[in-house]
Amino acid sequence: TTMQIAFIGLGNMGAPMAANLAKAGHSVIGFDTAGTTAEGVTNAATAPEAVAGADVVITMLPNGAILRAVAEQVIPAMKPGAVLVDCSTVDVDSARAVAEQAQAAGLKAVDAPVSGGTGGAINGTLTFMAGGTTEAFQIAKPLFDIMGQKAVHCGDSGAGQAAKICNNMILGVTMIATCEAFALADKLGLDRQKMFDVVSTSSGYSWTMNAYCPAPGVGPTSPADNGYKPGFAAELMLKDLRLSQQAAESADADTPMGQLAAALYTQFVETEDGKGMDFSAMLPRFEKRGRG
Ligand code: NAD
Fold first, then answer.
1. Hey, which of 158, 170, 180, 182 would disulfide with 96, CB 3.0 to 4.6 Å?
2. Nearest CA to ligand 1 atom 4
3. How many CB atoms within 10 Å of residue 237?
4. Is-contact 107 82, C-beta < 8 A?
5. Neighbour-count burial for 52-74, b at 16+ CB within 10 Å, e otherwise
6. Cα–ligand 1 centroid distance for 292 (angstroms)
7. Residue 257, exposed/middle/buried by CB under 10 A (0-12, 13-18, 19+)?
């Protein structure tokens, strides 16, 4: 059945996601403060105007503070029983606060961050990790199936964001481990292709080694083969690592490797060459350095 959808935040991710919903036959009204648009989507003049008649409101915004501000505006304008689906990557506390506010206003809420990047958004192959009631998840599920290829209902509100930052904490730590091992291997005179051949089929294998190898010319094509142009930007990795450390702080969890990864990506992005580079550009960074 055709749904009336409002889509707030038509950026690199939001625009192609909204376009895919429109292409599938849903009626989509968009809004973005930057005035961006998406194919097949009609823009409203304000966010409250966009959401007024919507069965489902989807947000795809930069961070938790902006999400809270947008929620403040749109929740009072949504129709009773409608579902607010936030697909942004935000802190767990903001996700839970917005869900509570929506539920208090008689709405349903789902936090549903994604993995898969802009390629996944364009091709409709994202993975959604969702938190909220089963009822709310079931309403949003057909839309996840259009915008993505997998949707996991992880638990109550905030569970989607929790899954996202735990996954990306592993990703950041693993990328660093893979890059420092390559740099060590180089200094030991080991050929990079041999290093890949062994590790990718041994117990050190990982997604970062096998699917996104940080060494150019080795393994499947990755941003390393394209001058480390993102891909997944180092700044975005840093954002997610910071969210993981904020969550660890608020949940009193000991995450020393995540903490170290956050510190290293901070240094990389803020005082080294990492800004604007793919997060796998940690390899040339290590190559340039010695132990001291
Ligand atoms: P983006 O900066 O391209 O898009 C965000 C959009 O939100 C912008 O167009 C901006 O104008 C708009 N916006 C900001 N404030 C607004 C407001 N108050 N009302 C309406 N619109 C507003 O970012 P993106 O790459 O599309 O990422 C969006 C979210 O998805 C982020 O939380 C990001 O962490 C997450 N994410 C991104 C990727 C990726 O590869 N780009 C992958 C997974 C998850």
1. 158
2. 11
3. 26
4. yes
5. bebbbbbbbbeebebbbebbeeb
6. 38
7. middle
For 5-25, the pLDDT digits (tens) are 999 999 999 999 999 999 999
With 0-12 / 13-18 / 19 or more C-beta atoms within 10 angstroms meaning exposed / middle / buried, residue 189 is exposed
Closest atom of ligand 1 to CA, residue 240: 34
In this structure, how many other beta carbons lie within 10 angstroms of the beta carbon of residue 253? 12
Residues 175 and 162: their CA atoms lie apart, in Å, by 20
Q: What is the ipTM of this complex?
A: 0.99
Scanning the structure block, which residue is given the tokens 């062994």?
Answer: 198
Do the Cβ atoms of 8 and 41 come closer than 8 Å?
Answer: no
101 within 8 A of 71, measured Cβ to Cβ: yes
Q: What is the pLDDT of residues 203-231, one digit of tens each?
A: 999 999 999 999 999 999 999 999 999 98
Ligand 1 pocket check for 171: Cβ under 6 Å: no
pLDDT of 292: 76
Element (H, E) at 8: strand 4-8
DSSP class of residue 213 equals -
Q: Write the DSSP assignment of 103-133 as a string of letters.
A: HHTT-EEEE--EESHHHHHHHT-EEEEEES-
